Amino acid sequence: MRLAAAFLCAALVPAATMPGAQAQAPAAPAAPSPSPPGPAPDAWIARPIVDLMALDKVSARATPLSGKVGETLHFGSLTVVARACVVRPPDAAADAAAFLDITDARPGIAPFHAWMLLTEPSLSIYEHPVYDIRLAGCR
Question: I want to staple 92 with a disulfide (CB 3.0 to 4.6 A). Which of 4, 12, 88, 133 is the partner?
């Protein structure tokens, strides 16, 4: 019975507060587990060339635009500069994204400064009364 009471007491009362017990140092935090080899599943790979599709809504004319990241592209009254163009690694689901700066020479049209995704074009749409710009890919 005495052994059961000592066991119960040890289970309910921290060892440092028991009479005659010496204080123990707190346990060291566990070392983080090593990360798996290769790129993280959510990693993106930079590409030097952006491919866009520009649409003139009035004439229904679609025009492909391609250029290097940082290069200025023109379509109608629009000026387009891709600040970054990235793709998913080969072992992940295919996708591309580009950070675009789009401005119109005409006054009153709000500029566009945002990421555009290839697989989800509706997430960041460039709203313009005459033109439509979509990401076609990065290479």
Answer: 88
